[in-house]
């Protein structure tokens, strides 16, 4: 893979010849691993914006062109023709499944949808008003205390069965977090349903009354799940890799990813975007005033659901989701004024020089909240939904890391800017 070298020369004449190489797509990289040995220098890159932490075969993003590929397949084609479990197989194993593989995989996943009865008790132990993300992060971490028959991270079969368990049990756990919160009974999974239908039934059915989502609602949820399934080395995936790099078990590693996802700059953004749109609607603030606040450097307010570390053109997921909003709201009703406002805000920012100069476009979270709300999913479950979809991405990266011959424990350097070495004052 090594093509050329780049030479780094310091002012005092120390020199390092660093290999450069490229991947299948994307820019060339400089391999700085020998830089410190050759020159005594480390690199400084807060937020890792210029640093590749690993080689990966799973997902590719071209932020300038608005391209997102899972294992080489464009997200638009997968959104159009695939379904969530097929995408899970693709992300985990690298190829689309044939009919037999698809049937086998679906049956494997659906066989694992139930959780140990004590997990139901565990969730019942949370305060009635606990945030579902607080319950999710705790419960997924706790899975390692229930499924320790498959925790040998050096055993490929154990890794695979843990991955299947995580993908299978997330909808069950997510629905229990929701129903604990509203004091409703926990429904057992129905393995005859599709993955997505089973989830909606566990969310909204009660023993006294079944729940059947409309075909458009199922399609919308499949789309949301597919679009959130992976996004290469984002903050939560990097957290999963870093946690797993110490040899931590998969449940602990995914729990760490969930904790990272919780933040409003990452998975919490769709909830924040809906809150923002609600506030604008109810406060009577004009779009011009909102935009002025977002541009004001003395105001911490940012347009939630706008901007992205990688996409500097448009987020291809946002386009697909915006289209789905039209279909779903036409079918189910839903919050039309909110959607209308979202589209007007998008239009106004696209014409505004501040947003043009900084290449700030709506991201996936700008519209996903509108879909989730139309599906009847409450706001405090939005990030849980994201975590459920992203579990397959996290676990695929975790599995890839464990077969990577260059894999080492993650351990960044730092630039120390604290007090210089000094002596502890002598006590008189
Ligand atoms: N509203 C107003 N100004 C913004 C925004 C925004 N949403 N995002 C970035 N900027 C400005 C920022 O103030 C800075 O301006 P200047 O150059 O004058 O200082 C410039 O754009 C670059 O911003 P940055 O913070 O250096 O960009 P970043 O790559 O570190 O941050 C981000 C990316 C997504 C955290 C940020 O755009 C943001 O906070 N967006 C709102 C939260 C959000 O929607 N997050 C969801 C991300 S997509 C889902 C996911 O993949 O997790």
Notes on the structure:
This protein is mainly alpha-helical and 428 residues long. The protein has helices at 35-39, 75-81, 84-93, 99-111, 117-124, 132-146, 156-181, 195-204, 215-227, 235-245, 250-261, 269-283, 287-295, 316-332, 336-350, 353-357, 364-374, 382-402, and strands at residues 2-9, 15-21, 29-30, 59-62, 67-70, 73-74. The strands form two sheets. It has a three-stranded antiparallel sheet with strand order 1-2-3. Strand 4 (59-62) and strand 5 (67-70) form a beta hairpin. Helix 3 (84-93) runs parallel beside helix 18 (382-402) and helix 6 packs antiparallel against helix 11. The longest helix has 26 residues, at 156-181. The protein is globular and about 80 Å long. Bound molecules: carboxymethyl coenzyme *A. Carboxymethyl coenzyme *A binds next to helix 17. Carboxymethyl coenzyme *A (CMC) binds at residues 231, 234, 265-267, 269, 294, 302-309, 358, 360, 363-365.
For this entry, give a set of tags.
single chain, 428 residues, mainly alpha, three-stranded antiparallel sheet, binds carboxymethyl coenzyme *A
Question: How would you concisely characterize the structure shown here?
Answer:
This protein has helices at about 35-40, 75-80, 85-95, 100-110, 115-125, 130-145, 155-180, 195-205, 215-225, 235-245, 250-260, 270-285, 285-295, 315-330, 335-350, 355, 365-375, 380-400, and strands at about 1-10, 15-20, 30, 60, 65-70, 75. With about 425 residues, the protein is mostly helical. Strands 1-2-3 form a 3-stranded antiparallel β-sheet. The protein has a 3-stranded antiparallel β-sheet with strand order 4-5-6.
